[in-house]
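Input record (one chain):
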Amino acid sequence: MKKVYPDAAAALKGLLRDNITIAAGGFGLCGIPENFIAALRDSAVKGLTIVGNNAGVDDFGMGLLLKSRQVKKVIASYVGENKEFERQVLAGELDLQLTPQGTLAEKLRAGGAGIPGFYTRTAAGTKLADGKETKVFDGKEYVLEEGIRADLAMVKAWKGDKSGNLVYRKTSRNFNPMIATCGKVTVAEVEELVEVGSLDPDQVTPRASTSTASSRGRATRNASSSARSPAPPARRTPRSAS
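The corresponding structure, as predicted from the sequence alone:
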């Protein structure tokens, strides 16, 4: 499988279709895969379910896809600072699944690790738990949450090698490591594309096999396996798809 691509559009070629679920890294506008988001907008695919911490702002980030009416559902933990998002939700044009931030992070991590569900105290006894299975442990109520598996995961990293190993930088790390594991196929936009062997193994974040696209003109791609745990940090080559 070819792993290096010249730009975001080339890395996404053959992966996009209507009505798929896409998970995207970022916190606010920090660490978002902005070039992939722009390529998604230009592709004109529609009926998307978007998973991420938030929905961007009106003219940047995931807000671009809302403005172009390509999204039917958003799973997020923060939905402020986007007037068009608010308008669509209140008008009943957009389905919103509001999820506590820590729960969302764990749902993504669980999906990437092949864990179908887990119990959490968060949201127990609130409207966010309506319709969900609950169970009592040691006298306390817990809510069953399902892991998230996306058809496509898009992340932003600081450095990446041509095998898909990624290194994130400071706060731009945020949701990216969890999201990198949860996609059937993962694409990564990196600031610097380096040769295999150039990255410190201790700095490589465990993740599923990864597709890497560089904002400086290179990209790589590979399929991930949902049935296996992420590789240990010292492993320098991605797994093949099972």
